[in-house]
Amino acid sequence: MVRDLARVPSIRLQRDFRRIFARGRRFGSRNLTAVVAEPGDPATVRIAFVTSRKVGKAVRRNRVRRRLRHAAWELVSAGARPHDVILIARPSAADSDYVTLRSEVHSVLARAGVIAPDGGTPT
After folding, report:
1. Where are the alpha helices (DSSP H) in the chain?
2. Is residue 41 a contact partner of residue 82, using CB atoms and an 8 Å limit?
3. d(CA 83, CA 39)
4. Are 122 and 113 in contact (CB under 8 A)?
5. Nearest CA-CA partner of 27 in 83, 96, 65, 78
6. What is the pLDDT along the chain (123 residues), one digit of tens a residue?
7. Rounded to an integer, what distance in angstroms lies between the CA atom of residue 48 and that of residue 9?
8. How many other CB atoms are there within 10 angstroms of residue 32's CB atom?
9. Domains of the chain by range and CATH?
10. 8 A C-beta contact, residue 102 and residue 61
């Protein structure tokens, strides 16, 4: 297993979360919601993952978070426009497999204009 994958920068500050929730647009699917806003740092894509206790206990929440993080890393590393993104897992995400979650992450990021619908860099 490769452990030195380049990390996607994350959103950590409360003021950034507030700004994204206040100004961002929401895109939903069956298992997740994405809130997408113009970037605070115009050079990068930053992503945060939110899994509430409604998703399940710690083991299930962490599994969902790992799957979402890997799916987002795959899609964003292929090329993405700078945005700040918060991916919020819904309770049904705990029962979904990786392929389903990846396709939903692709769908919401493409609709938001972060990635191209074909997975390449949007113009």
Report:
1. 14-23, 58-77, 98-112
2. yes
3. 4
4. yes
5. 83
6. 334 456 778 899 999 999 999 999 999 999 999 999 999 878 889 999 999 999 999 999 999 999 999 999 999 888 889 999 999 999 999 999 999 999 999 999 999 999 988 855 565
7. 9
8. 25
9. 14-112 (3.30.230.10)
10. no
